UniProtKB/TrEMBL annotation:
Residues 29-48 bind DNA. It holds the Pfam family TetR_N. One of its GO terms (molecular function) is DNA binding. PANTHER family: HTH-TYPE TRANSCRIPTIONAL REGULATOR YJDC (PTHR47506:SF1), TRANSCRIPTIONAL REGULATORY PROTEIN (PTHR47506). Keywords: DNA-binding, Transcription, Transcription regulation. Residues 6-66 form the HTH tetR-type domain. It comes from Marinagarivorans cellulosilyticus. This is TetR/AcrR family transcriptional regulator, transcriptional repressor for nem operon.
Length: 193
């Protein structure tokens, strides 16, 4: 008799994401995943194949539903300075309301890249590059519309904004308070003025 899944795959991936996000890849055991998802080992392997495969699915789902959708929504504003401001405001708000101080799943994974293989590394690099591209596009649009001065270098300053974003996400995990996080945002906006 063929294996038949009796649980929702999206829900299972969300539950696995919560565990990976809280504990990291290395510290997450198969037992942690089975408990969180509420399935047995056979069902887990039939549905996902391995811990690495469900981690990749978790990372890609997070990437698609969190970062990519947020950036698309902000880009649709057609006001690049406002879009960048709103992004940093949203990240600060998320950080201050995150009781568990989990930070960003993508950034957390980037910090742990030496423990991952090339597939995970490619996914993380793509997510970060896409964020940098968002900044570069917003700066270019801002220069074209006159909202951002012409002396701002889209390529260089996009890298600077990404660096400040990553720094904010790392330091918001318990090192920096609201004033300090706001200072990072001030530095970010200073790059495009």
């Amino acid at each position: 008799m063929p294996w038949e899944k009796t649980f929702d795959l999206d829900d299972a991936i969300d539950r696995a994401t919560d565990v990976f996000w809280a504990k990291g890849y290395e510290a997450t055991s198969l037992a942690d995943l089975l408990k969180a998802i509420g399935i047995n080992k056979g069902s887990f392997y039939n549905a996902f194949g391995s811990k690495k495969k469900i981690f990749m699915q978790s990372l890609l789902k997070y990437e698609r539903e969190q970062r990519r959708d947020t950036l698309a929504e902000l880009a649709s504003l057609k006001d690049p300075v406002s879009a960048i401001n709103k992004l940093f405001d949203a990240l600060i708000e998320q950080s201050l309301t995150d009781k568990d101080k989990k930070g960003c799943f993508l950034v957390n994974t980037a910090l742990d890249l030496p423990n991952h293989d090339s597939d995970i590394e490619k996914a993380v690099k793509k997510g970060l590059k896409d964020t940098e591209s968002f900044f570069e596009q917003q700066i270019t649009l801002g220069i074209q519309t006159g909202a951002i001065p012409e002396h701002v270098d889209p390529e260089v300053d996009a890298k600077g904004l990404l660096t400040l974003l990553v720094g904010l996400r790392v330091l918001a995990r318990g090192v920096f308070d609201q004033n300090s996080l706001s200072a990072i945002k001030t530095q970010a906006i200073g790059l495009i003025q």
